[in-house]
Amino acid sequence: MIELKGINKTFFSKSGKVQAVKDVNLSIKKGEIFGVIGYSGAGKSTLIRMLNLLERPTDGTVTVAGNNLSSLKGKDLRAARQEIGMIFQHFNILWSRTVRDNIAFPLEISGVSKEKRMKRVDELIKLVGLEGREAAYPSQLSGGQKQRVGIARALANNPKVLLCDEATSALDPKTTDSILELLTEINQKLGLTIVLITHEMHVIRKICHRVAVMENGRVVEKGSVLEVFHHPQEEITKDFVNQLSEPEEMKESIAHLAVSQDGELVQFTFLKGKTGSPLVTELIRQFDIEVNIIQGKISHTQDGPYGKLSVFLKGEPAVIESALKYVREQGVEAEVITND
Amino acid sequence: MIESLFPNVNWESMWEATVQTAYMTAISVLATFILGILLGLLLFLTGRGNIWENKFVNSIIAGIVNLFRSIPFIILIILLIPLSVYIIGTMLGANAALPALIAGAAPFYARMVEIALREVDKGVIEASQSMGASNGEIIFKVLLPEAMPALISGITVTAIALVSYTAMAGVVGAGGLGNLAYLEGFQRNNPDVTLVATVLILVIVAILQIAGDVATRVIDKR
């Protein structure tokens, strides 16, 4: 659905040139939710703006839904943009228009007749759950409702792709979840391809199928969300993954325990289908060791659950060794955390 | 009673002068609104980072606007007498004052328009571009409606400045309340005429201010 080939973007300014995006190649499939994560300044904002040519790439080609966008200009580009919806961190809806007229705006641009416009707006209002707020002005809406207007507006012309530029970063956690649920629902119901950029790992975990990690303008890692969560390769990816699985205070208390107790601190990582297995019970039954559970957590991703369990194993070193071997045979990863 | 308080006021000519002032103000406000928005849009759109970015055109318009804003109005009237004679055919009367009034007020308002447009959220323009809006649609469906409250409060301030410009224009023969106050009130030493003319000008200003405030409040949905 989306092909990026050899994308570079360089900004020239008085203070010199800044290469915001360097040699990015991405292929995004139809119907998937693709996330791009990175800290601010990583180039992800520039990258998503090149998907609808709000920024023109310095080199490379952008192909969306069969259109080679980077070769288009003027009227053709404007027509191609109507197939790509976009929502924004700060919503960017017109305060001078009501909810209804904001959603009708892209339809006015694409030249839909007034009668059809009103019909389509009603459908969209129902889809995003804004019934009863049609005549309200944006200043009378909450942040979540404003983003719903943004989503309805972005979907008005039945786009093939929806771009989300930090769409939940200005919202509180509860509203973020409701917007993410809405996006998942739209993805499933309409088969819409969604590309989102964010700096929050839980957004990726919650709704994305695949993810790309950006640092200094480059895509440093990409793959399915579960795979990236499970085997983060780059330091920055590990940072993002840890953000989610190990809150700071937990890390401290584990470090404290590791000093005060003798035994091996082990972290088990459960993947698809293994999160339900009674591993600890089996360990105690089969081996002469003590198992002390420190912490555990299961996260759900679009590809299935993913769990982590930290335990202390006390016993003869040889027995612990064979216990770990047993765990690994069960398809669960076991990592001994050395205390240093 | 009124006769004895204002013995020198000729009410008929006072009314005539009020109508002239109102006429000059109305026409010049209308023309200033249109011309100012045009100039302001050009200033804004040719500015840095905007859709018609053009340093050359921008600096020419900015130069003209600044030049006309810098000339004191009383001197501008005198400088524009040949233009008024060319367009209107005479240098006397309400119509003859219009070119100078518009040339004095439009650049002033153009700057306010530019500031108002700059206040429009850049993100909203970006969003419109992402929907495939053309430049014309961005101007008429986004920029102007979103800036409208500031455009209205700007024209209110300009209209009030124009009332005082008409009074100045009156001194050099344009008619209206300023002319009456100067010729009948000051030169013939009839302070009551000056007083009544002043009060009438204040009434016009108050009406403009209230109308502007109400309009801004109705439009502003922020």
Describe the structure.
The complex is a heterodimer of chains A (340) and B (222). By secondary structure, chain A is an alpha/beta fold. In chain A, helix 5 packs parallel to helix 6. The longest helix of chain A is centred in the middle third of the chain and has 18 residues. Chain B has 222 residues and is mainly α. Chain B has a single domain, classed as MetI-like (MetI-like fold). Helix content of chain B is 83%, strand content 0%. Chain B has ten helices and no strands. In chain B, helix 2 runs antiparallel to helix 3, helix 3 packs across helix 6 and helix 5 crosses helix 6. In chain B, 40% of the residues are buried. Chains A and B meet through helix 2, strand 6 and helix 3 of A and helix 7 and helix 8 of B.
Q: Helix and strand layout, with pairings?
A:
The complex is a heterodimer of chains A (340) and B (222).
Chain A: E1 2-13, E2 16-28, E3 33-37, H1 44-50, E4 59-64, E5 67-68, H2 74-81, E6 84-88, H3 99-109, H4 114-128, H5 143-155, E7 161-165, H6 173-190, E8 193-198, H7 201-207, E9 210-215, E10 218-224, H8 225-230, H9 235-245, H10 248-260, E11 264-270, H11 279-286, E12 290-301, E13 304-314, H12 317-329, E14 333-337
Parallel strand pairs in A: 3-8, 3-9, 6-7, 7-8
Antiparallel strand pairs in A: 1-2, 1-4, 4-5, 9-10, 11-13, 11-14, 12-13
Helix pairs in contact in A: 3-4, 3-5, 4-5, 5-6
Chain B: H1 2-5, H2 11-45, H3 55-70, H4 73-79, H5 81-88, H6 94-118, H7 122-130, H8 135-174, H9 176-187, H10 191-219
Helix pairs in contact in B: 2-3, 2-6, 2-8, 2-9, 2-10, 3-6, 4-8, 5-6, 6-8, 8-9, 8-10, 9-10
